[in-house]
Amino acid sequence: MDFKVSVIVPVYKVRDRILRTLDCLKAQTLKEFEVLFIDDGSPDDSSEFANNYLKDSHVIYKIIKKENGGVSSARNLGIEKAKGEYIQFLDSDDYIDKDMLKDLYNAADKTNSDVVYSGYVFEESNRKEISNNIDSLKNGEFTGKESALGLIYGISHTHIMANLFKRSLLMEKNIRFDENRKFAEDIAFEIKAYAHARKVCCVKKIYSHYVKWGESVTNNVSLNFLDIYYSNIETLDYLKVRIKDKDLEKAMIQSRIPAAIVNIVAAFASKKELREEMYRFIKDQNVRNDLSKYKMYRLEKDRLKYFILSKMILFKPSMIEKYYGKRS
Q1: Residue 269 sits in the same domain as residue 167
Q2: Are residues 45 and 153 both part of a single domain?
Q3: Residues 105-143: pLDDT tens digits?
Q4: Which one of 30, 106, 236, 322 is least enclosed by Cβ atoms within 10 Å?
Q5: Which residue stretches, if any, does this entry annotate as coiled coil (predicted)?
Q6: Which residues of 219-249 are buried (b: 16+ CB within 10 A; e: fewer)?
Q7: Range of the domain at 173
Q8: What is this structure's pTM?
């Protein structure tokens, strides 16, 4: 059977959260799709539960087991094993609406796009909305460069699962997730895919549901947050070598990398046990040089905030500690 879409689902210790994901796959109105469950050395019976739940359904799926290596390694294995024309990445505790695969595939086919992306909602486990990205999206067809710039500058962005990526693009350009990073590897993957794409299509509609389970991101802050900086540095290096586009490089240097530094410092300042690491980080001369290059892409409240915070970090970091320490 020829599959229009391959859905790649990493599985690791989600036995109590995977049911909604399985139900959304059973509900898809597109029938020509496969699901690859990549069991990343899960210590529980998550993949066995998925198998028992779907075995009598119409869903075509495989369960592939591997040693634990993290979500990026699971996704990369899925890319290698996938047979679909397009690939969608779905985490095993999130879900998508029933028409997502059909609508996005039809848009990709109609426009002959390498990537199609759409909107998503960030929500509580009880489905209560926290935020969504619909206002940042613009319906239509764009060049890969336009879409990459929108993502880098944060003027048009979406979650990794709200995309369909043409598998041939990922294979030909060897686009993979960085298995050494815990944070920002999703965005790095998207930037690379968009930058290589000939055409990207945006469908301005929410289909994807990113679910907040348990503690907030703030409570889970750790030294791994440094990956946000290093992942962006590596993405810039990739663009310099593989894409060679000055506008994309400028956007990374003047916007995305400095903003990443601000986010890391704010997160570390909110955790007393990480403040020593915060000061160590902002004393690094490379970090200071990168932060000093921040420029506002356009005058907006959030960009002005980042500009002010970048100067405070450089010249009065104790104020950052005091402000975010009170908020923690």
Answers
A1: no
A2: yes
A3: 999 999 999 999 999 999 999 999 999 999 999 999 999
A4: 322
A5: none
A6: eebeeebbbbbebbebbbebbeeebebeebb
A7: 5-212
A8: 0.95
